[in-house]
Design brief:
Largest sheet: 7 strands, mixed
Strand content: 5-15%
Number of strands: 22
Low-confidence stretches: none
Distance between the termini: 36 Å
């Protein structure tokens, strides 16, 4: 067994022991030795390296411990001439960089590695989940400190440790060699948690530059055996493999899965939701409701196809099913098949578009620029007649939805009003809590999520048409932002009410909201208002965010009119603008209304659990199906609930250890994948520089108690329950997940708050480790100005 010690001693102990990797020879010494024998040490270095370039590296005793790595904290100086004066200066500077003066601190000198073509850092387990993955960040710029300095544009790989042999065909040979060496190091050190710096030269030689303990935070997760994880991954692999073929009544030759392409589960319930949140989201939306409304609105009938699948508890959208649902029902089967296969191929070619597929890939409605955008189909073998059929079908669907006087969205808004009236009748009835849960779910589906799905479809078309008016030159980019700022949604009313209503009045109206709409562990506003609001000072009015009036000029009216006539769309100009404004506002209000049902469902489930001595966290592992079952059976509720919790905890323990890519295009992606960059959705044309502050579901009580005013707020994913942040004068916000038409994107535009929505895993991780950040929405950039 190799004992991990200082950087120098650890490297010395593994030198010559690795089959496929090299540890460079070294000269190392303690600070005390340097102080008593500078000249002897310099002579030894000069002799060992024969006047070649060397790197003088830190090797402090507190640098690489099991509790803290202090990576990059101390100085290392590359490209030093192995001559007396340069060496002395470099060594003195490295020693001076040690914050703690300790005579046992060391300095490590090695030859300067040349012709580097790949370098990086590898973890021998996932530090976020403690899963059995090699997590490899690498850079190909040639700088050996690119990753550790934080200045690289690195790639991020996840490799499951026990990947099957056939997966090697899809992995770079160098990465396979690195994985073999990491496995060797784990055995030599008898540790699963290692942090290894490495480099490859142009001849393909692997060099190990550092080995230290990977510092982990105990997450208190249930133990799950490697055999269990391997079995689940094999099942996921087999499931995806079996779906890479045609299915009856479904267009498209192959399946693709994504966390954000449609109904955005990563944004709404997170990438590792608890079983109750996942099952509730499915029941209310993605099992059947979503498809009923697409069918009602003139698209293909997908009513037998669930939209959301879960792989070991990780929620994914079946993109093939989603793309089918955007095909107008009037298109013939052969052309529909060709169109869906085109969509799927485009996504496989450009997986970064998975959260913008309906903007960048799919043609789901008629827009002012459709005739120009759809020409891309000619490059993929579509004839002029086929393109005309697609355009005509999209025009018909769009007209049936958008008409201001009798469009489909009108009927859906009336249903939402019914839901609001029916809430009190159920909530205040003498029914048992289990019966109330059942009927609130049924009502929420029929009068809540079903019409909301229609309003959401209308709102998406509205934003598409508005954006296309910019691309066609009818409106400017500034006009677009002014229009979005002119909206008056329920969120705007909430901010106004926070300023004008009493605490009791405000919570009576908005108290049902909770960050994480489907998360039973997230406190409602009225349960812990002090977490979110400070009534001692009230809301801060921001004059820069005051509503501005949007008006069309005469020339713009004429351009809109001629475009509508040319496109064959049925709305008059004022009717179109009113439709766009109304449907976006009503989508937001309908969401606010139906989430009251969801919040009450969760509150009732918490009460039911309390009867049996169970906490909200315990109940988060149940399934909503267990409550629906109890409504129509005489089974003992306690036994049903405890059985559901036990099953849910077993599944959640496995889910917590799994990592999969945001887009799965092949079964091979289950074992090895590169985490892709993501192009953020920049909102407004503003610019802001400020300190950053992260708010997480697990630490709202800690973070909300701090002042978030004038900060750029970081949130992994944000639903309407996060609207409390707008009662503070935040400078901007960044989310890891979210689309261009998401709730938070609408809010940013409405309040003129610079934001970057859906920046992805890699960029979000960089920003959360920063102190000061600049968001430039017009230039579409995020700059890290100061690190922590």
């Amino acid at each position: 067994m190799i004992k991990l010690s200082t950087k120098a001693d650890t490297l010395k102990s593994i030198e010559g022991l690795l089959k496929n990797a090299i540890v460079l020879p070294q000269v190392s010494f303690a600070v005390s030795e340097w102080e008593s024998g500078e000249q002897e040490i310099i002579a030894k270095i000069c002799s060992a390296f024969n006047s070649k370039k060397v790197i003088v590296r830190s090797s402090a005793v507190d640098e690489d411990t099991a509790s803290t790595s202090n990576a990059g904290k101390n100085l290392s100086i590359p490209n030093v001439s192995a001559d007396s004066a340069p060496l002395k200066d470099a060594i003195d500077r490295v020693i001076a960089s040690y914050e703690v003066s300790n005579p046992d601190n060391q300095v490590l000198v090695q030859s300067m590695l040349e012709n580097v073509v790949m370098c990086g850092v590898a973890f021998t387990m996932d530090p976020n989940t403690l899963g059995d993955y090699y997590v490899i960040s690498y850079d190909t710029s040639g700088a050996t400190d690119a990753i550790t300095s934080g200045e690289s544009k690195e790639k991020l790989l996840y490799i499951y440790k026990n990947f099957p042999k056939q997966t090697e065909n899809n992995i770079d040979e160098r990465v396979v060699t690195l994985c073999d060496t990491l496995s060797e190091l784990e055995k030599l050190c008898e540790k699963r948690n290692l942090d290894v710096e490495f480099a490859f030269d142009k001849e393909g030689h692997l060099f190990i530059l550092q080995v230290r303990p990977l510092v982990l935070v105990d997450k208190g997760q249930e133990s799950t055996s490697a055999a269990q994880i391997e079995t689940v991954l094999k099942d996921i692999y087999a499931k995806i493999s079996s779906n890479q073929k045609k299915k009856p009544f479904l267009c498209g030759d192959r399946a693709v899965y994504s966390v954000m392409t449609d109904w955005n589960p990563a944004e709404m319930i997170g990438i590792r939701p608890k079983p109750l949140a996942l099952s509730l989201y499915r029941e209310l939306i993605t099992d059947n409701i979503w498809a009923y409304q697409r069918d009602n609105y003139g698209y293909r009938n997908l009513r037998s196809f669930p939209l959301l699948v879960d792989f070991g508890g990780l929620p994914y959208i079946d993109v093939r099913v989603s793309f089918n649902s955007f095909v107008p029902a009037t298109l013939d089967e052969e052309l529909s098949e060709k169109l869906v296969n085109y969509y799927l191929q485009r996504l496989r070619d450009n997986p970064l578009a998975h959260d913008k597929a309906e903007f960048d890939i799919v043609f789901s409605c008629y827009t002012f620029d459709l005739d120009e955008r759809i020409k891309v189909l000619t490059d993929y073998g579509f004839s002029d007649d086929e393109i005309k059929d697609i355009v005509d079908a999209l025009r018909k669907v769009t007209n049936s939805i958008t008409n201001f006087d009798n469009g489909l969205w009108r009927k859906d808004w009336e249903k939402i009003k019914i839901l609001e009236r029916r809430y009190d009748e159920i909530a205040n009835s003498d029914l048992s809590d289990i019966d109330k849960v059942y009927w609130l779910i049924e009502d929420c589906k029929r009068y809540g999520t079903l019409p909301f799905a229609g309003l959401a479809r209308g709102a998406f078309i509205a934003v598409q048409m508005l954006k296309s008016s910019v691309s066609c030159g009818i409106l400017s980019e500034d006009d677009y932002h002014l229009f979005m700022n002119s909206l008056n949604t329920i969120s705007s009313q909430m901010k106004s009410d926070y300023q004008s209503l009493s605490k009791q009045g405000f919570l009576g109206k908005y108290g049902h909201l909770r960050p994480g709409t489907y998360d039973i562990c997230s406190p409602r506003y009225d349960e812990k208002p002090e977490l979110y609001f400070d009534w001692s000072v009230g809301a801060v009015s921001n004059s820069e965010n005051e509503k501005k009036e949007f008006k069309l000029s005469l020339d713009q009216m004429k351009l809109f009119k001629s475009s509508l006539e040319k496109c064959g769309l049925s709305n008059d100009v004022l009717g179109l603008i009113e439709f766009i404004k109304s449907v976006i506002e009503e989508r937001e209000l309908s969401k606010f209304i139906f989430t009251k049902h969801i919040s009450e469902i969760l509150k009732l489930i918490q009460n039911i659990g309390a009867e049996y001595g169970l906490t909200a966290d315990d109940m988060s592992y149940t399934s909503i199906q267990s409550f629906l079952r109890m409504y129509s059976t005489t089974e003992d509720p306690k036994e049903v609930i405890n059985g559901s919790i036990e099953c849910g905890k077993r599944k959640a323990a496995i889910t917590s250890k799994l990592t999969l890519p945001p887009v799965i295009a092949s079964q091979e992606d289950v074992y090895a994948f590169e985490y892709p960059d993501t192009e953020p959705n920049y909102i407004t044309s503003g610019e802001v520089t400020a300190e950053v502050l992260e708010i997480t579901g697990d630490s709202i009580s800690e973070s909300a108690s701090r002042d978030i005013s004038e900060k750029i707020v970081l949130i992994k994913s944000a639903d309407p329950g996060y609207d409390w942040i707008f009662s503070h004068k935040i400078a901007g916000f960044i989310t890891q997940y979210g689309g261009a038409n998401s709730h938070m994107a609408i809010r940013a535009g409405e309040l003129s708050i610079p934001a970057a929505v859906g920046v992805g895993e890699k960029l979000f991780s960089k920003v959360r480790h920063s102190k000061v950040v600049e968001i430039n929405a017009r230039e579409k950039t995020i700059k890290i100005l100061r690190r922590k």
